Amino acid sequence: MRDGDSGGERRRSGLIARWGRWRPLRDAEAREAAAAWGAVLGVAQQVRLERISRFQVTDHHGRRGCSLVGVVHDAHAACIYHSRALTAEDLVHELLHVAHPEWSEEAVVLETRRLLAGDGRSEAEAISASA
Ligand SMILES: [Zn+2]
Fold it and tell me: 3-state secondary structure string, the chain?
């Protein structure tokens, strides 16, 4: 699918080359990636990342130790809570919720997939092209 925004597409390829799609990011990398992806996705809010312990997370049955990635946001700020290392896919997904609060979960999932598909090159090719 073309979005008629080749500048945006090139910027996205650069971000994918730098932080990948599904590579677990260290916290400092994730902060940088969140800021860069937030700018590309038009997120106006200040975005903070906060690691939480798996033992603070319970599932529907009240069992502890689940993994969680989720975002809480208002008009001014957003905080992505995570109990495991974040990936670029996690960040794009959560930032889309912030940028488009009216979107359904399905719409966010589809747009995340489209944005990370880039121009169809493999991650390795994108990395060597940007070197
Ligand atoms: Zn979601």
Answer: CCCCCHHHHHHHHHHHHHHCCCCCCCHHHHHHHHHHHHHHHCCCCEEEEEECCHHHCECCCCCECCCCEEEEECCCEEEEEECCCCCHHHHHHHHHHHHCCCCCHHHHHHHHHHHHHCCCCCHHHHHHHHC
Q: Is residue 10 a part of any domain in this protein?
A: no
**Residue 19: inside a domain:** no
Q: What is the Å distance from ligand 1's center to 82 Cα?
A: 13
Q: What is the whole-number distance in angstroms between the Cα of residue 128 and the centre of ligand 1?
A: 31
pLDDT of 94-124, one tens digit each? 999 999 999 999 999 999 999 998 554 555 5
